[in-house]
Design goal:
By secondary structure, the chain is an alpha/beta fold. It has 20 helices and 25 strands. Among the domains are: 101 residues, Urease, subunit C, domain 1 (Roll), CATH 2.30.40; 115 residues, Diaminopimelate Epimerase, Chain A, domain 1. The strands form 5 sheets. Strands 3-2-7-23-24-25 form a 6-stranded mixed sheet, with no helix packed on it. A 6-stranded mixed sheet has the order 9-10-11-12-14-13, with helices on both faces. Strand 24 and strand 25 form a beta hairpin. Helix 2 packs across helix 7, helix 7 crosses helix 8 and helix 10 crosses helix 11. This is Amidohydrolase.
Length: 550
């Protein structure tokens, strides 16, 4: 092992250990050579490596393995937010009208008005309908993406301009909702949404790269050293390459391209050919599936229909085709991540993994897992399937009193089985946490706090959501550090050493491990969840280089 070039000094180096163990400090000093950890210990490291530069973060600071967000959408998230209208906090049609009229006043007369983060509860119990936009903004093209990113509400001007009829046929369960008067402007699921999104004006590539750079920098500033990107549409590759021409990415990015529902083996082969494509800090290393949609839209797949007679079908019209697609990728060594919200969808994924096994590089994983019964919880550990869950979905997309659309639709019994993080961990399942940014809050400190509180941190008057699913700080931080690092390895080259170096040990302080680190002002194990959410990030290190706080 080469001599250390840098020594980090803090109050503690926190090793989160394995499930059920207590976190412990391994010392106060950490020595780095290039991109690797050389040694951990105390002041003796300064004597052992007298030529190394010392960075002193103070006696209260804590150095952690780098925080990892296992579910984000950096490209489309940054695209959708760049130049679009944020609709967070809009809970009524009156508020929505106010926002849209303000946007019209500020925009060019012929410009589209686009928005994101639209809460369907704003339609006050009715199915979303874009015809109201014509009353407020006559003739204006309006396209608003719902908070779950699985639907659009568009104005009649958009319907007419594109020529939507309601008779469109899709390979999956997407639809252009229509009634006796024609399309209502309610556009459900991805293939239907694509008909609209293809017509939206696109910013120049350089501007889109600026949006993406801001998003990745924001991740690093909140303590993240790696994100998993569950999207890879055009021009994702060009954007990552453009940012690397400008310099290093501030975080690692592990990319999972989407396998479209009911797609063909030829499409699968094209996605398989993308595996390993990447750069210094990003790499395609997996494939994403969407087996169902969302409960809010009625497109999730539960064993029993919801109260409106919906939420009981797969998004893939042929579940046999889904099974064969997962087998195709597994046989080629490609791990998969499947969006599955309803209990029937989750069970079907588990059935498929039981048949085809895991890829050798990483286990298969299931995303979201919003409501599952006891028997399904136990199967995750039995099969070694990773449960990838977003704590802020549990605390911020529904209401504890059951008054929200999600709760009303699926009913109290299934609500009571929502986001079972604690139960999955207790059964021995591998659990990783993420944000689903931009749908969820991108700051990992908020996700970690919400997971412990089961309510939005900073909102003590909000009710707790399934409070029996609270986890402690150690379990929360472990699920965003050592667990995902151990399961999924690296993303991109490590210090230019080649793609294989991306699989070097991470998420730990052993000599030879990659120096991806998060430095916080205080040891989170000694703080309340409320204090953890605002615990200052003093620095992040990726490949041993300081990214934030320099």
């Amino acid at each position: 092992m080469r001599d250390a070039e840098t020594i980090l000094r803090a109050g503690s180096l926190i090793d989160f250990g394995t499930a059920g163990s207590r976190p412990e400090s391994l010392g106060t000093h950490l020595a780095i050579a290039g991109d690797r950890i050389v040694a951990v210990g105390g002041a003796e490291l300064e004597r052992a490596y007298p030529a190394a530069g010392v960075i002193d973060f103070g006696g209260d600071a804590a150095i952690l393995p780098g925080l990892i967000d296992c579910h984000t959408h950096p490209v489309w998230g940054s695209e959708s937010q760049g130049g679009s209208l944020g609709l967070g906090g809009v809970t009524s049609l009156a508020q929505l009208r106010e926002r849209l009229e303000a946007a019209r006043a500020a925009a060019d007369p012929d410009a589209w008005i686009t928005g994101y983060d639209l809460d369907v509860n704003a339609f006050e119990g009715a199915e979303p309908n874009g015809r109201v936009f014509e009353e407020w903004l006559p003739g204006r093209r309006v396209s608003l993406m719902t908070r779950d990113a699985h639907a659009l509400v568009v104005s009649p001007a958009v319907v007419a301009g594109i020529g939507l009829t309601g008779d469109e046929v899709f390979a999956d369960a997407s639809s252009i909702v229509a009634d006796a008067g024609g399309p209502t402007g309610w556009v459900l699921e991805l293939q239907a949404m694509d008909l609209v999104l293809a017509h939206l004006p696109q910013a120049p590539l350089a501007v889109q790269a600026d949006y993406l750079a801001d998003a990745l920098r924001g991740f690093a500033e909140t303590g993240l050293t790696e994100v998993h990107a569950l999207d890879f549409h055009e021009p994702s590759r060009e954007l990552y390459e453009e940012l690397e021409r400008r310099g290093e990415l501030p975080v690692r990015v592990r990319v999972y391209p989407l396998v479209p529902a009911d797609s063909t083996p030829e499409v699968w082969a094209g996605i398989a050919a993308l595996q390993g494509v990447g750069g210094r800090r990003w790499r395609v290393d997996g494939a994403k599936f969407m087996l169902d949609g969302t409960a809010d839209n009625g497109t999730a797949w539960f064993a029993e229909p919801d109260r409106l007679g919906e939420n009981h079908e797969a998004l893939w019209r042929s579940t046999d085709a889904y099974r064969e697609a997962v087998r195709f990728f597994t046989e080629r060594g490609v791990p998969t991540a499947t969006h599955a919200i309803g209990d029937a969808a989750v069970d079907f994924v588990l059935d498929v993994v039981a048949e085809v096994g895991h890829a050798p590089s990483a286990p298969h994983r299931i995303e979201h897992i919003e409501s599952i019964p006891d028997a399904t919880v136990a199967r995750f550990a039995e099969l070694g399937v990773v449960a990838s869950i977003q704590p802020t979905h549990a605390t911020r997309l529904t209401e504890a009193d059951g008054s929200d659309n999600w709760s009303r639709r699926i009913g109290p019994d299934r609500v009571a089985h929502g986001w079972r993080i604690r139960d999955l961990i207790a059964q021995g399942a591998p659990v990783v946490l993420g944000s689903d940014w931009p749908i969820g809050v991108g700051d990992p400190r908020v996700s970690l706090a919400d997971a412990q509180l089961r309510r939005p941190v900073g909102e003590p008057d909000r009710g707790e959501h399934q409070p029996e699913q609270k986890i402690d700080a150690a379990a929360a931080y472990r699920s965003m550090t050592s667990v995902p690092a151990g399961l999924f390895g690296g993303a991109g080259d490590v210090a230019g050493a080649g793609a294989g170096a991306g699989d070097a040990p991470r998420g730990r302080f052993d000599p030879g491990s990659v120096a991806d680190l998060t430095v916080l002002a205080a040891d989170p194990m000694g703080l309340s969840p409320e204090a953890q959410a605002v615990n200052p990030v003093l620095a992040t290190f990726v490949d041993g280089g300081r990214v934030v706080g320099a």
